[in-house]
Structure formats: structure tokens, C-alpha cells
Amino acid sequence: MNRPLARPLVPEDNFRRVNPSVYLARAAAAHLRSFVTGGTPRSVAKTMFNDTVTEVILQRAATGPAAISGTQQWAASLAGVAIYDMIQSITSLSAAAEVIDRALKLNMDGVAEYRVPGRALTASAAWVTEGGVAPVRSLSFSNAAVLRPRKLEVLCPFTREMAESSNIEAIVRATLGEQTGLALDLQMFSADPGDGAKPPGLFQSPALTPVTGGGDNAMHGDLANLFAALAAKGGGKTAAVVAAMPQTVRLKSSLGPLWDYPIIGSTALAPGTVAVVEVASLVSGFGTVVEFSTGKYAAVHMEDTAPADFPAAPMKSMFQIDSIVLKAKLSADWGLRAVGHCQYLTGATW
Question: Which domains does the chain have, with CATH numbers?
């Protein structure tokens, strides 16, 4: 029997064309809608979407973490893929997401610390005669990437009208993607050494001096110097160029079709900033558990640069403006498996 057109398709109807990241947006949307209807996120998700994966993500109460596990093993496995699928889905918004998508990715579930062996930059394999002794390279942890779960939180206020809208899933998906992507770029492409709260930025090597004079000569000179510095550290074969948008446009419009290194633009970089990252040396880790929390009776410091605890201005009462604040929390970290495998410069003259 044909279903009425008013009923939306669910993953079981069109399973092959549903991206795993959709389930994260649906879980978040269900949390928001449940605040309006008074139901549980699971019951709301069943009414709105009627798909198994979203129900698995929301198997706990709305006030607790939306852990990914359960008896439906296929659903739990697909939910675990959703984190990296979300990263892939925001590559058009985030340079960091695109670099992560090209690099080594690890699962951080239940891990306090990952020590990923340093990248081998010289060959240990050798041609051996019959009965000869084959060389063995010991694992090098001196240049290892040390990954520890760091907490990445996204807080977004939504009005009641938004939460009640039939477009809430699309709104949540866009908002979470934009906020997460910008947060990744701002931290990854920085000289911040990192701490217990955030991963270190990749710009840990001294900045190179840009070539003066502007024009194509300066552009080609800067690229040559960046790749030379990377090659001096044993890298360059799998490099990607990450640049501020003005330099990205210039690079893409000036370099010919024989240029085969990826060029990735980032809105988080200051104009004149250009970097090359050895993608094969980058490793990232993400947890597959996302925790969603919602609140209406919260006072929120509306500040995204230097947030402070209560009281701090500007402060908004979610109750007074009839809004709901959604908080999504996930674990993430990254690191380079070789020293100096990100080189950068600022103040490019082209």
C-alpha cells in the first residue's frame, strides 16, 4: 500500500541515500522539540522520524548523555560513523574538517590517551640475501602524536518558533556544522600550544618570512620556501596548502592544471596567511558519543570569544526571550606524527 505523501521518508525507506550525520541532527532536533511538546526525546524522534538509529542515539533520558550503544548493532555501528560523516559534511565550510578527512582517523571511545608512533621518514626495509639478517625498526614514540580526549562544546539558542518549525532538523544540522567547523579551524590553524582543554595548533614551527614585492614572483617564492621547509623535515609528498581566502583565490586562479596539491581556503585565517600541512603525518581522534543537553531556564552569557561565568554581560535569559539553548558535547583531538610537518607564513604580499 502506498504511503501518503505527507509522511516524510525515513532511512528504512531510502537507506542508501541517508548520510549518517543526519542522525546527529535528528537527535539534536528531537531534544529541542521535546522541550516544546513535553515528551521524551525518544518519543518525539519516533513521531518525527521513525528511524531506528536516531532512537538508539537517544536511548537515555533527555537530561543524560545520548550514548551510542544498544541491541541493534547495525544501528549502533552506523551511529558511530556519524561523527566522521559530520566532519566530511562540513568540509565545504571548514578547512580543518577537509584536512582531517584526508588524514588518519582514530576512534577515541574509552581511551584516556593514544600515543601514535612517529612517522617513519627513512626506510627500514632492505634487500636481504638468502640467510641474511633483515633490519627491524623499533617504534619511535619520541615524535609521536599524543591524543587525549578534549571536550568540544557547541551552544546554540533557538526560539520556540524555531523548535516548533518543520525545518528544525535542517536548521540544527546547518548550525551545528557551521559552529563546529569554525571552532576546528580557529584552533587547528593557530600557534596556540594547547592545554588540557584544547588540542595544540599546527603552527608550532617558526613562521617563515614572506617574499616581498607582491605578484606572481612573491607567490611562487613563498610556495617554494614553504615546500622547501617541509622537505627539510622529510615531508611534502602528501602536502595540502591551506590559506586565507584572498590567497586561496589567487592560488586557484594563477596555478595551472598541472598543480596537483590540494588548495584549501579557510575563513578563520588572517589575510596573508599561507600554510602547507603534510596530511599523512596528521592523526585525529573523535569520540562516537555525543551528549545533548537542552535548557529553557538558563541564563546564558552571549559571548563567543571570552565567555565568562555568571554574572557577565551580555546575559540573556532563555525563559524571558522564550528560547531554548541546545548544548552538544563531543570528544576530539589531533596531532602531527613528525616535527615540522606544518610550515606557514603570515603577511604574504600577493
Answer: 15-104+148-194+288-335 (no CATH), 215-284+336-345 (3.30.2320)
